[in-house]
Design brief:
70% of the residues lie in helices and 0% in strands. The protein is built from 33 helices and no strands.
């Protein structure tokens, strides 16, 4: 899936883009006459014995997203580089990223010969064993890791477990570690293993781990929060709330506990309780902003109005830009756009002034003053005294407002004017690509995303968006896979990219592999598009009751999600009417 686009109207800024520098091959950096190898501190040294042909071919294949070729070339280079530990490690990791278990095993053997006691080696060995379903070997390696006196050892074990493909296998091995008392007596270690069990969707294992945490750390509020999450996952929402209530007395004195409790209540859908917890203890503009957002999401207008009145009275005419921006946002939440405009106009000059002008245009649009909203955006676009980012954002804003108005032609035209002013700007090109995709102009979508990649070959958002678009809307699956693999090399644990990878595997007919990746993405991020993808693959595999569960959860998150609607129509699935959730106790 493409990463969600952040609304300019909502944030005053465009969605973030990866602007990392192009990753030149570390081989060339190391050999450069311009300076020593320290020019690339993460690059391993290049032994004289390494055949340059294999190494360069491997690195270029890696950067091109041709992971199968990269794994082959790197393994050849590692074999030739006798005694080189880092090259054997790199060959192992690239092969694992390519899902080439055979070459990963061969590279791992070289690595073991050169550094037999490395924690990193043991971690990779355990991960590969998990991926191959070799439970005994995986357990043996993990026990070795956890028995190491190094205080970081449990983190290596966590990484090894997270590298497994099949959640059921990983849950089984993690359960064995709990049974054997292998997890160290550290709260943070237990927290992280507990969170992993929740992501694995293994409720019985989660209950066991959290029961152990309650026994070992009975007075720790962080344990109560984790326990509440496990109870909620098991459908015991009332017990989850009771567990959180026990921890609330600690929230006033501990901002970290306060934030954790608020997030836990938010996950339960109890926005009023989350806002109540955030009101405990000392307050600042940030905590007020979180409270306002929670109250707005909970549709608690009266309490939000009380907070607004309190902050308005405290303003006292003092031009605090952050506080006035917050008051303007709350006024928007309360559907008082005229008051919002007044607050934004009261923001003095400075770094927040440009964002205030963006918000003025959005608030005018909410008032129904569409022509004035566009005029405000145009004024900022043409203001030579504003910086380029603010002016560029004004084009993005106008495009978004025209999209909301259903003016698809106007959206494209506004973004086109922005590109005339800022040729080849990646944010504008990305936004226009998404606009073309909504109009089913996939040729234009591809053209704009490729323009981004010409200027920024390693722009992860564009790589993923183009790869996903080709996988979802064309039959060019192999090309899509290479683009998504390029994104995966940069951000292997990005949920949107993992989802794209799973989706292209599904389109290639590799359904079981696809399901593993899509379930992993769902564990990272409960997103309706990811849920729809998991449901579709399960349906095709004949696991229809399980598929319905994912479809229903996706509908609960966003009933109008395009991917969900398309999946239900394509598979001719009819879901029962949604069951309304009970109102939280107040």
């Amino acid at each position: 899936m493409p990463e969600p686009e952040l609304s300019v109207a909502a944030s005053g800024r465009p969605r973030p883009h990866s602007r990392r520098p192009s990753r030149l091959p570390w081989l060339l950096l190391a050999l450069s006459a311009a300076g020593p190898a320290t020019a690339a501190p993460a690059a391993p040294p290049v032994p004289a014995a390494v055949p340059l042909e294999q190494l360069m071919a491997g690195e270029y294949a890696f950067q091109a997203g041709q992971l199968a070729d990269a794994a082959r070339w790197y393994l050849e280079a590692a074999r030739a580089a006798e005694g080189d530990v880092l090259l054997a490690e790199r060959a192992t990791r690239i092969a694992m990223l390519a899902n080439d278990d055979a070459r990963a095993g061969q590279a791992l053997k070289l690595w073991r010969q050169r550094a037999p006691d490395s924690l990193a080696l043991q971690t990779a060995t355990a991960s590969l064993a998990l991926r191959q379903g070799q439970v005994r070997q995986a357990r043996r390696e993990l026990l070795r890791i956890l028995a190491t006196p190094d205080p970081r050892a449990w983190r290596f074990a966590l990484v090894a477990l997270a590298g497994g493909r099949d959640p059921d296998v990983v849950a089984r091995v993690l359960g064995d570690l709990v049974d054997r008392g292998a997890i160290p007596e550290q709260l943070q270690a237990w927290q992280e293993f507990g969170r992993l069990s929740l992501r694995l969707d293994a409720p019985k294992l989660s209950a066991r781990i959290i029961d152990e945490m309650v026994r070992r750390f009975p007075d720790e509020p962080r344990v109560a929060v984790l326990r509440a999450g496990q109870l909620h996952q098991a459908g015991q929402t009332d017990r989850a709330r009771a567990m959180l209530a026990v921890a609330e007395p600690r929230a006033a004195a501990d901002p970290e506990v306060r934030g954790m409790l608020a997030a836990a209540y938010e996950s339960l859908g109890d926005f009023a309780a989350a806002a109540r917890v955030m009101a405990l203890g000392l307050q600042d503009t940030q905590s007020y902003g979180i409270r306002a957002s929670l109250l707005a999401r909970g549709d608690d207008g009266p309490t939000l109005a009380t907070l607004y009145d309190e902050l308005s009275a405290a303003d006292g005419g003092r031009p605090d830009p952050a506080r006035r921006m917050l008051l303007g946002r709350i006024a928007e939440f309360l559907k008082r756009p005229a008051e919002a405009v007044d607050w934004y106009r009261g923001v003095p000059g400075g770094p927040q002034r440009a964002e205030a002008r963006i918000r003025i245009a959005a608030a005018l649009y909410e008032q129904g003053k569409v022509a004035e909203a566009y005029a405000e955006a145009h004024a900022l676009q043409n203001d030579a005294g504003s910086d380029d980012e603010a002016r560029r954002n004004a084009y993005l804003l106008e495009g978004e407002l025209r999209q909301r108005a259903g003016d698809t032609g106007g959206e494209i035209e506004a973004l086109g004017r922005g590109l005339a002013a800022y040729p080849d700007d990646s944010a504008l090109l990305y936004a226009r690509a998404l606009a073309w995709e909504r109009q089913d102009r996939i040729d234009r979508t591809e053209a704009d995303l490729r323009k981004v990649l010409v200027a920024e070959p390693e722009n992860v958002a564009a790589l993923n968006a183009l790869g996903y678009t080709l996988a979802d809307r064309t039959h060019r699956y192999q090309e899509a896979l290479e683009l998504i693999d390029r994104a995966r090399t940069a951000e292997p644990d990005n949920a949107a990219i993992v989802d794209s990878y799973g989706w292209v595997l599904y389109r290639l007919g590799r359904n079981e592999e696809a399901l593993v990746e899509l379930r992993r993405a769902w564990g990272m991020l409960k997103d309706p598009e990811i849920g729809a993808h998991v449901g579709e693959v399960l349906w095709v595999l004949g696991r229809r009751e399980e598929a319905r569960r994912y479809f229903e959860e996706s509908r609960r998150l966003d009933p109008d999600n395009r991917s969900l609607r398309r999946a239900l129509d394509k598979l001719q699935v009819t879901l029962p009417p949604p069951v309304p959730e009970p109102e939280p106790a107040r």
